[in-house]
Each structure stands twice: as structure tokens, then as C-alpha cells.
């Protein structure tokens, strides 16, 4: 009967409890890896300076700017010169125009005087005829004539004065022209003298060169002659010696061996001396070469030292800048909250502009990742991480360089 | 959520105190479930046995026969236990005294003892369940508080307070609370259910004891009348 096995043991419940817990554990373990498809929450910011310039580049740019400024200055100067020349030319033209005007006025005045005179003479003739015709009014006519004569005289006097004045003006003008001409001549003369002097100098120089060349040639010729003479003497001497030797050989066949030995020794000694001389020359040449090499080496060393100094400077600046970049990267990374559902290879570039003390002036999206939420989160991270007071700790030479930089945001697993 | 934030990873990376709390809670949960299963089985068997015994008892069988069906050395449970205790006492007292009141008093006493034993048997370990149900939330809360303390300590060392530096600590601290609740909730539910069932069974046993007592009383009245007559 069932009553006989009523006692309930603990084995089965224990098994059941363990199975239950294991089941729950397995469910929790299995479900969470399934949920792992969600993107990782924590990511790294890859802050890379994109707009960094090397020191040498900057120097080059400065040079370029300087040369550009110089060119601009030159152009300005040239323009100013041209303008001045133009002005001068214009002034001259004006002067010429004035002169022409004056001449024209003169000619006109002369013509007018002539006309006036002619008219007056005609009138006088007519009046004389009238006087003759009108005998009654002779006195009046005479008087009139006298008055007319007086007027004429007056007019003549005036005309004369006018002429004198004109002549004076003419003279003055002529004198001026004369002066100008003289000045021009003077200038021409001076230019000619200059040219003559230069030509003379040229000639003198040429003559000197000619003389030098001749002297050199002379010297060469003399040296050659000397050499030839020496060679001839040598040859004569050798021939004599040969002859003597032959005679001696003929005469003293017995002592030949001895003499040969002596000659051999002599030759050996000579050869040795020759070798020594050659060795010495070799040494001298080597020394010169080594000296030249040393000089070159020193130049190279100096160049290298300068280069290395500049490299060290730039390296120091770069180190400080790297520290700054690391700090910025860390700050931005900590402030960054990545939105969910971001693909792993989304990359956004944020252009950051800083004030002189590290405060944020502007942050804009340089290159969008295509995901606006991601871009916004990156912007917010930069804004939250500002201000970057570490900028003030940078050397002032580099500070300006890092006032503006780009930050690249890229989600990825930190662990 | 990545692997770093999964529950097993968080448990493994938790601090020592929090890990101990978690272990305690796991043990409590395991034991409470053992108790739950065992008590459930016990209750079901007791219920079935009681139904069977009542059917048999009220089927009109002779009580002496019913008593003799089960060997005396075998331990009986539930209503049968009460019946056997009462009937044995009745049979022992019947030849010794003529007073029906004394016999009924003895029978009632022995049945009360048997009932008390049954109550003790049915309520066994239910107290443990109650303890787990009431204490494990507090234990879990302790683990959480400890973990959050650690998280704030680590926060004080960090340069900048972000959610990313605090989040793992708080997550693993909250796991302790979750485990406490995980252990407490079934314990509470099953404690209530099992204790209700146990009291219902005990009530049934009491009813049976009263009925049996009345049967014996009727018997004694008849016998007393017969003896007197």
C-alpha cells in the first residue's frame, strides 16, 4: 500500500532544486550571449591630429610668404617708378603743350599786329585821299591825320613794345632751350665719357688679360724650352755616358761584371729613390685628400648639427603636443556616450577650434559618419570635455598649431 | 550588452564580500527549494493518505479489523496515526477501568499527542522557508550596499566620474539584491501555500479525532448501558 512508503526523502527534492537553479543559470547564460549582438557600449576615441604641420614646412611657408612679400614690394616699387616716370612724361608733355600754346599765342599776336598795321596804313591812305578830296576840312583832316599819326605812333610804339616783350620772351625761351640742350649735351657727353671710360677699362682689362696670357705663355714656353734643353742635355749626357760606357765596356771587359753590379746597384738605388718619391707624393696627395675630406666632413657635421638641433626642437614640441593630444583624447573619450545601434566602422571627424586658454570656440562636423545621432554624440563629447586648459602648458611656439585640430571618432571595443 | 556585462562575468568579478553574500543567497535559495519540493511531496502524500484513510474508515469496516490491518511496529502518519493512538489507548484502558469518562479522557489525550506529532511533522522546515523568505532580501541588500560602497571608492580614485566607471560596480552590486529577491520570492509564496495546506490538513485531523472520539463515546455509552443492564 502507498501508506507503507510515506516517508519522503531529501534526495529527490535536492536534485530538483539543483536542476531548477542550473536551468535558470543556463537560461541567463544563453540569453545574454544572444543579446550580445547589440553594439558595444564603450568605445575608444581615436583622436588624431590631422592638421598638424611640421616645423620645416612652416619655415618653408614663412619663406614663401617672405618672398611673396618681397615680390609684392618690388612690384610696388616698380609701379611707383613707372608712375613717377609717367608723371614726368606727362609733365614734359604739358610743358611742351604750354610751349606750343605760347608759340601759337605769339604767332597770333604777330599776325594781329601785322593786320592792324596793314589796316591802319590802308585807312591812312584812304583818309589822305579823303583829305585831298575834301579840301575844306583840311585842317581837321590834318589834325585828324596828326591824331591818327599820333595814334599810329602810339600803336606802333605799343606794337614795338609788344614785339620787344615777345622778343624777350622768345629770348628767354631760347635761353631755356639752350640751357636744356646744353644739359642734354652735358649728359650725352658724360655718358660718352662714361662709355669711353668703360671701354678704356675694358680695353685695359683685356690688355692686362692679354699680357697675363702672354706672360703665361711666355712662361710656359720658357719652361718648355728649359725642359727641352734639360732633356737634350740629359740626352747628351746619357749619350756620352753610353759612349763612355761602351768604351769602357770595350776597354774593361773584365771589370764589366763589377761595373754592371755597380750600375745595377745604382739603378736599384735610383728605383728605390723613385719609389720613395712616388710614395711621398702619394702620401702628400692622400693627405690633401684627407684634409679636403675633413673639411667636407666638418661642413657636413655642422649641417647635421643644425639639422639635429632643429629636429630636437621640433621633437620637443611634438612630445608636448602629443601629451596634449593624449589629454584631449582621454577627456573626450570619457565624455563620450555612444548612442546605441552604431555600426562598428562608423567614423566621424570633428573639427575643433580652441581659444588661447583652451576654451572651446567652435566644434563642427568635419566629416560626417552618415549617422546623425553618432555625429551629435561626438559633438556633445567634445563640448562636454571642453575646456582643454592643458593648452596653456604647451610651449607657446606650438600653441597656435594646436588651436585648431580634427578629432576622429570611431567606436570599437576597449577590452 | 556585451560579455563584460553578462551576469556570470559580473559575479566572477565581484568583490569578496559581495561574492560571499551571493554564495549565501545561492545556498539559501537552493535549500529553500529543496524544502519546497520536499514539503510539496509530503503534503501531497499526506493529503492522498488522508483521503484514502477516510474512505476506508467510513466504509463501515470494523475498527478492530482496521486496527489490525497495519502491523503495530510500522509507523503510521496522519489521521491513521491518530486513530491508532486513540484506539490503542482505548483498548488498553477498557479492561482496566469501568469509568467511560476516564477512558475517553485517556483516548483524547493520546490522540492530542498524536495530533501534535503530526503537526510537528507537517510543519517541519517550514520555519526555514520563512527565515529565507524574510532574511534573503536583507542579505541581498547588504551585498548591494557593500558593492556600491566599493563603486564609490573606486569613483573617488577616478579622475572623472562617468557612468562607465560606476556601471560595472553597481551592476554587480545589484546582482546581490536580485539574488536575494530570487531566493525570497519563491520562499514566501511556498511558505504561505505550504503552511495553509498544513493547517488545513491539521484541521482535518482534528475533525477526524473529534469524530473518532464521538464514535468511541457512543460505543462506551452502549457498553456502559449493557453493563448496567
UniProtKB/TrEMBL annotation, chain B:
<comment type="subunit">
    <text>The Tol-Pal system is composed of five core proteins: the inner membrane proteins TolA, TolQ and TolR, the periplasmic protein TolB and the outer membrane protein Pal. They form a network linking the inner and outer membranes and the peptidoglycan layer.</text>
</comment>
<dbReference type="GO" id="GO:0051301">
    <property type="term" value="P:cell division"/>
</dbReference>
<comment type="function">
    <text>Part of the Tol-Pal system, which plays a role in outer membrane invagination during cell division and is important for maintaining outer membrane integrity.</text>
</comment>
<feature type="transmembrane region" description="Helical">
    <location>
        <begin position="126"/>
        <end position="149"/>
    </location>
</feature>
<dbReference type="InterPro" id="IPR050790">
    <property type="entry name" value="ExbB/TolQ_transport"/>
</dbReference>
<dbReference type="GO" id="GO:0005886">
    <property type="term" value="C:plasma membrane"/>
</dbReference>
<keyword id="KW-0997">Cell inner membrane</keyword>
<keyword id="KW-1003">Cell membrane</keyword>
<feature type="transmembrane region" description="Helical">
    <location>
        <begin position="20"/>
        <end position="42"/>
    </location>
</feature>
<feature type="domain" description="MotA/TolQ/ExbB proton channel">
    <location>
        <begin position="79"/>
        <end position="206"/>
    </location>
</feature>
<keyword id="KW-0132">Cell division</keyword>
<comment type="similarity">
    <text>Belongs to the ExbB/TolQ family.</text>
</comment>
<dbReference type="InterPro" id="IPR002898">
    <property type="entry name" value="MotA_ExbB_proton_chnl"/>
</dbReference>
<dbReference type="Pfam" id="PF01618">
    <property type="entry name" value="MotA_ExbB"/>
</dbReference>
<protein>
    <recommendedName>
        <fullName>Tol-Pal system protein TolQ</fullName>
    </recommendedName>
</protein>
<keyword id="KW-1133">Transmembrane helix</keyword>
<keyword id="KW-0131">Cell cycle</keyword>
<keyword id="KW-0812">Transmembrane</keyword>
<dbReference type="GO" id="GO:0043213">
    <property type="term" value="P:bacteriocin transport"/>
</dbReference>
<dbReference type="InterPro" id="IPR014163">
    <property type="entry name" value="Tol-Pal_TolQ"/>
</dbReference>
<feature type="transmembrane region" description="Helical">
    <location>
        <begin position="169"/>
        <end position="191"/>
    </location>
</feature>
<keyword id="KW-0472">Membrane</keyword>
<dbReference type="GO" id="GO:0017038">
    <property type="term" value="P:protein import"/>
</dbReference>
Amino acid at each position: 500500500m502507498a501508506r507503507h512508503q510515506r516517508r519522503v526523502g531529501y534526495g529527490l527534492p535536492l536534485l530538483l532544486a539543483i536542476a531548477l537553479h542550473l536551468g535558470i543559470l543556463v537560461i541567463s547564460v544563453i540569453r545574454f550571449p544572444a543579446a550580445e549582438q547589440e553594439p558595444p557600449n564603450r568605445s575608444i576615441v581615436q583622436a588624431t591630429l590631422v592638421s598638424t604641420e611640421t616645423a620645416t614646412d612652416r619655415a618653408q611657408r614663412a619663406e614663401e610668404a617672405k618672398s611673396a612679400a618681397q615680390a609684392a614690394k618690388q612690384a610696388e616699387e616698380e609701379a611707383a617708378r613707372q608712375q613717377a616716370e609717367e608723371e614726368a612724361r606727362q609733365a614734359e608733355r604739358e610743358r611742351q603743350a604750354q610751349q606750343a600754346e605760347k608759340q601759337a599765342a605769339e604767332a597770333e599776336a604777330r599776325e594781329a599786329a601785322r593786320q592792324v598795321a596793314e589796316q591802319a596804313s590802308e585807312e591812312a591812305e584812304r583818309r589822305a585821299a579823303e583829305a585831298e578830296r575834301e579840301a575844306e576840312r583840311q585842317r581837321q583832316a590834318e589834325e585828324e591825320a596828326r591824331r591818327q599819326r599820333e595814334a599810329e605812333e602810339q600803336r606802333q610804339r605799343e606794337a614795338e613794345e609788344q614785339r620787344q616783350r615777345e622778343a624777350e620772351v622768345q629770348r628767354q625761351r631760347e635761353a631755356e632751350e639752350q640751357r636744356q640742350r646744353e644739359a642734354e649735351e652735358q649728359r650725352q657727353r658724360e655718358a660718352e665719357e662714361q662709355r669711353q671710360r668703360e671701354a678704356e677699362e675694358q680695353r685695359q682689362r683685356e690688355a692686362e688679360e692679354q699680357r697675363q696670357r702672354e706672360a703665361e705663355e711666355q712662361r710656359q714656353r720658357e719652361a718648355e724650352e728649359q725642359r727641352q734643353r734639360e732633356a737634350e742635355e740629359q740626352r747628351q749626357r746619357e749619350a756620352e755616358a753610353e759612349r763612355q760606357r761602351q768604351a769602357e765596356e770595350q776597354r774593361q771587359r773584365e771589370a764589366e761584371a763589377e761595373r754592371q753590379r755597380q750600375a745595377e746597384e745604382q739603378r736599384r738605388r735610383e728605383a728605390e729613390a723613385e719609389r720613395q718619391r712616388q710614395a711621398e707624393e702619394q702620401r702628400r696627395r692622400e693627405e690633401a685628400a684627407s684634409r679636403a675630406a675633413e673639411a667636407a666632413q666638418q661642413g657636413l657635421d655642422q649641417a647635421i648639427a643644425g639639422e639635429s638641433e632643429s629636429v630636437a626642437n621640433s621633437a620637443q614640441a611634438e612630445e608636448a603636443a602629443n601629451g596634449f593630444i593624449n589629454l584631449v583624447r582621454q577627456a573626450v573619450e570619457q565624455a563620450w556616450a555612444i548612442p546605441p545601434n552604431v555600426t562598428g566602422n562608423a567614423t566621424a571627424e570633428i573639427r575643433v577650434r580652441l581659444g588661447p586658454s583652451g576654451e572651446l570656440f567652435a566644434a563642427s562636423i568635419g566629416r560626417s559618419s552618415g549617422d546623425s545621432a553618432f555625429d551629435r554624440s561626438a559633438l556633445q563629447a567634445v563640448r562636454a570635455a571642453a575646456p582643454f586648459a592643458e593648452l596653456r602648458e604647451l610651449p607657446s611656439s606650438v600653441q597656435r598649431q594646436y588651436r585648431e585640430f580634427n578629432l576622429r571618432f570611431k567606436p570599437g571595443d576597449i577590452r | 550588452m556585451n560579455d563584460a556585462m553578462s551576469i556570470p562575468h559580473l559575479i566572477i568579478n565581484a568583490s569578496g564580500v559581495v561574492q560571499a553574500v551571493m554564495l549565501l543567497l545561492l545556498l539559501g535559495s537552493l535549500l529553500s527549494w529543496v524544502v519546497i519540493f520536499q514539503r510539496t511531496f509530503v503534503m501531497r502524500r499526506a493529503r492522498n493518505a488522508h483521503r484514502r484513510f477516510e474512505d476506508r474508515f467510513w466504509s463501515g469496516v470494523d475498527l478492530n479489523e482496521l486496527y489490525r490491518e497495519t502491523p503495530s511496529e510500522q509507523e503510521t502518519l496522519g489521521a491513521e496515526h491518530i486513530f491508532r493512538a486513540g484506539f490503542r489507548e482505548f483498548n488498553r484502558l477498557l479492561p482496566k477501568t469501568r469509568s467511560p469518562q476516564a477512558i475517553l479522557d485517556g483516548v483524547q489525550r493520546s490522540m492530542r499527542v498524536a495530533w501534535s506529532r503530526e503537526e510537528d511533522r507537517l510543519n517541519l522546515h517550514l520555519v526555514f522557508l520563512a527565515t529565507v523568505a524574510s532574511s534573503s532580501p536583507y542579505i541581498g541588500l547588504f551585498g548591494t550596499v557593500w558593492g556600491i560602497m566599493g563603486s564609490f571608492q573606486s569613483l573617488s580614485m577616478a579622475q572623472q566620474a562617468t557612468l562607465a566607471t560606476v556601471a560595472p560596480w553597481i551592476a554587480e552590486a545589484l546582482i546581490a539584491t536580485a539574488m536575494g529577491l530570487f531566493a525570497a520570492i519563491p520562499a514566501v509564496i511556498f511558505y504561505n501555500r505550504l503552511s495553509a495546506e498544513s493547517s488545513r490538513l491539521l484541521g482535518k485531523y482534528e475533525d477526524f479525532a473529534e469524530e473518532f472520539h464521538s464514535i468511541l463515546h457512543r460505543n462506551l455509552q452502549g457498553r456502559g448501558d449493557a453493563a448496567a443492564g
